[in-house]
Amino acid sequence: MKAQLERYFEFAALGANWRTEILAGATTFITMAYILFVNPSILAETGMPFGAVAAATCLSAAFGSILMGAFARYPIALAPGMGLNAYFTYVVVKGMGISWQVALGAVFFSGIAFLILTMTGLRQKIVEAMPAELYAAVAVGIGIFIAFIGLKNAGIVVANPATMVTLGDLGAPNTILAIGGLILMALLMSWGVRAAMLLGIVGVSATAMLTGVVQWKWQPSYLPQLGDTALQLDLSGALARGLFEIIFVFLFVDLFDNLGTLVAVSKKAGLLDENHRIPRVGRILTTDSLATMFGALTGTSTVVSYIESASGVAAGGRTGVTAIVTGLLFLLALFAVPVVGIIPAAATAPALILVGSLMISHAAEINWHDAESAIPAFLTILIIPLSFSIANGLAFGFIAWTLLKLFRGKASQIGWLVYVLTTLFLIRFIYLGKG
Q: Mean pLDDT, to the nearest integer, of 230-234?
């Protein structure tokens, strides 16, 4: 049985082993465990019960991650997406006055739309239409994005009304812990310890408890409360309200955020083929579609691929086993919320910073001496962290790449689908105003 599983997950070809895959899955889980508390906090502002959304978050993350690992065989974990949950709450429900039940119906329909696009092969063609020059740029941009989030969560970088960002209070307890964790993880990585990030996160969490920075409080399982949101979506209401715009935004942002995540994680893990394409991309996108539908049924906003999966890849994860382990830990989190809750941002922030540093190496793959490649790549890299949106970065890169080719008289080098995507990106900026 063990040998069969190793063949199925291509252990030999990818140089994988069980110990590393399990550690990588645990690293990914710990790095993205914040979603168990952040997602319910955001969606609770719509009137959704916190405990029920917490349970739905655990279940949808478990379902999506396990399916991704077992079916698509990629080390990519899924969970309700940040950004899309804010759009769900502040724009759709609070801004437009739509009930959360109807909004969940719109999320479900966007999942159906994802699945139809995947089954027709259109989503795969969209992935394949991405210019090769932007693959490395997306990986680098997301690396900076992840590092910036880590610096922000650590308190090393904070908001400033005059300069937008500035150096934070380096003497704050959480910041001191994060800096200590960063040094510890960096040392462990320089010594070649594969579980460097996991050990660092555990070490900082333990220190935070011992020093009183984190207070442990008992919290029972949220599972019994799931019925308050499960199967409460209003499909007929979504159809009656004609929520095409909302469904389109859920679909559009999820599609290109996922595309960026898939490119970045696959590139970091060395999973792209010789043509810089993603193998089994149809299975990946099918998983994403089904996970979104499952999430809506249980009671949460759109489920997406998580860029924090790069932390597991950095820890050595190469196969679907990594994602399966992450999914199983999300299931366990249903009953272990008190333990998960003691992991502070100061523990996961250093891991995000280091993952970002590892992804910067892909900048060497960009031809910086060719303006047609360099300028779209630079815009992609710059816009992703500065706008806090992978989709925005891809949009700028696509538009710049297409316009430069056109004005250089190289229209024949642009595929029809790239023209369509560029037009959609332009319409998105004009119609929606911002990401």
A: 87
Classify residue 170: in a domain, yes or no.
yes
Residues 315 and 399 in one domain: no
- In the 8-state DSSP scheme, what is residue 74? -
Phi/psi at 114 (nearest 5 deg)?
A: -55, -45
Measured between alpha carbons, how far is residue 293 from residues 91, 145, 207 in Å?
Answer: 20, 28, 40
How many Cβ atoms from other residues are within 10 Å of residue 176's Cβ?
A: 18
Q: Are 137 and 332 in contact (CB under 8 A)?
A: no
Integer Cα distance of 109 and 251 in angstroms: 9
Residues 378 and 327 in one domain: no
Distances (CA, A) of 7 to 4, 73, 398: 5, 12, 38
Q: Which residues pair with 94 in a beta bridge?
A: none
The residues with which 304 forms a beta bridge, in sequence order, are 79
Report which DSSP code applies to 164: E
Q: How many domains does the chain have?
A: 2
Q: How many CB atoms lie within 10 A of CB 116?
A: 12
Backbone angles phi, psi at 139, to 5 degrees: -60, -45
| End-to-end CA gap in the chain | 47
Write out pLDDT tens, residues 98-149.
Answer: 889 988 998 898 889 888 888 887 766 776 777 767 777 877 887 788 788 8
Q: Which amino acid is at 137?
A: A
What are 397-426's pLDDT values in tens digits? 889 988 998 888 887 777 777 888 788 788
Rounded Cα distance, 402 and 120, in Å: 25
Q: Are residues 348 and 375 in the same domain?
A: no
183 — pLDDT class (breaks 50, 70, 90): very high
What's the rounded Cα separation, in Å, for the pair 228 and 401?
48
b/e 199-225 (16+ beta carbons within 10 angstroms → b): bbbebbbebbeeeebbeeeeeebbbeb
Residues 204 and 178: their CA atoms lie apart, in Å, by 8
What does the block give as tokens for 84? 């899309």
The whole-number pLDDT of residue 2 equals 77
State residue 268's pLDDT score: 67
